[in-house]
Amino acid sequence: MKSFIPPQRTLMGPGPSDVSPRVLEALGRPTIGHLDPAFIGMMEEMKGLLQYAFATQNELTFPVSAPGSAGMETCFVNLVEPGDKVIVCQNGVFGGRMKENVERCGATAVMVEDEWGAVVDPQKVEEALKANPDAKIVAFVHAETSTGAQSDAKTLVELAHQHDCLTIVDAVTSLGGSPLKVDEWGIDAIYSGTQKCLSAPPGLSPVSFSERAAEVVKNRKTRVQSWFLDLSLVMGYWGGGGKRAYHHTAPINNLYGLHEALLILHEEGLENAWARHQHHHQALKAGLEALGMSFVVKEGDRLPQLNAVTIPEGVDDAEVRSILLNDYNLEIGAGLGNLAGKVWRIGLMGHASNPANIEYCLKSLDEVLSKMNAPITSGVAVPAAKAVLDGAAQAS
């Protein structure tokens, strides 16, 4: 047995994304106690940086000590009680996970379903709200990672509030990569992950709860079914002020990494990060379409950081991804659910969203597909992408 030395990959799948050298360096700093005053000072800074990333002043904003799925569960187990009715929007894999959470809380999920690749239809949501006046919550995925569709969170939240419902929003792939304005849009509870556009290692889940949502948690009729995720207990550790009650041993070094990643986002500026992801999406799009590939999601509804494209006819999905990984050290993602074998998911997230990665991905795809005699147009993808990148550089 020897020490594990991982290969150096270029991560352009649906996550995790490439991690900045600054974040990797932060992870290796000396471990201190999770109740050390110096660490508690860093925790306070972390909350402020997360408030910036979410565009919120919510006091109840912190990272759950577990991956994004635990952030999702934190929102549901604290806000949903047995017997509640929750309207759940599903337009991909992750809406289905919301449904699972609702049912495990002993509540009823009223499903609003849209085709995979489409956004959540506000009209269907409004119809469900009218048909279920006793609904308590509307839950939806802002950025559906399985398809690359970005729903209109602002409109969906407005609809929910018109019918006196709270909202739970999945922002795992959108935080740091797409416009997301928790306070301006009035989002009640939101969760994300560190491994997407924040470009930190997986293992933490930023969450934020509005005052309205916090009041609902405080006035529950039943005890939260999860001890570890019970906000009334967790906030004894993550609450304001210097005094902290022991709840669990926080993942100290992972929190160093997230702090550094959020600092990088703050230095770049939220709007600049959103613009960078959009610009690089346009360059990648130009290259992929020049190759002859098409997008699953229609123009205007696409996530810039997660590009789901159709696999050329006659091409073996798994074989291409295996060659890219083993020969090019390049990871792209497979399709999920009913899109398995039909699409590739190409990520441009956080630190990985840069011109070099775009050109490398397009060049590698061109070479691999050309050797397979796939129905593509070879030699044009990289120039098409560079034209977009160079055009923006000249304009600035």
What do these coordinates show?
The chain is an alpha/beta fold. It folds into two domains: 20-267, Aspartate Aminotransferase, domain 2; 270-395, Aspartate Aminotransferase, domain 1, CATH 3.90.1150.10. 43% of the residues lie in helices and 14% in strands. The protein starts with 9 loop residues before the first strand and ends with a helix.
CA radius of gyration is 21 Å
Number of domains: 2
Distance between the termini: 53 Å
What is the CATH topology descriptor of the largest domain? Answer: Aspartate Aminotransferase, domain 2
What is the H-and-E element order? EHHEHEHEHEEEHEHEEHHHHEHEEEHH
Give the tags:
396 residues; alpha/beta; Aspartate Aminotransferase, domain 2; Aspartate Aminotransferase, domain 1; 2 domains; seven-stranded mixed sheet; three-stranded antiparallel sheet; 43% helix; 14% strand; SP_NH2Trfase/AEP_transaminase; alanine-glyoxylate transaminase activity; L-serine-pyruvate transaminase activity; Alanine-glyoxylate aminotransferase
Brief digest:
Pfam families: Aminotran_5 (PF00266). The chain folds into two domains: 20-267, Type I PLP-dependent aspartate aminotransferase-like (Major domain) (Aspartate Aminotransferase, domain 2, 3-Layer(aba) Sandwich); 270-395, Aspartate Aminotransferase, domain 1 (Alpha-Beta Complex). Helix 12 packs across helix 13.
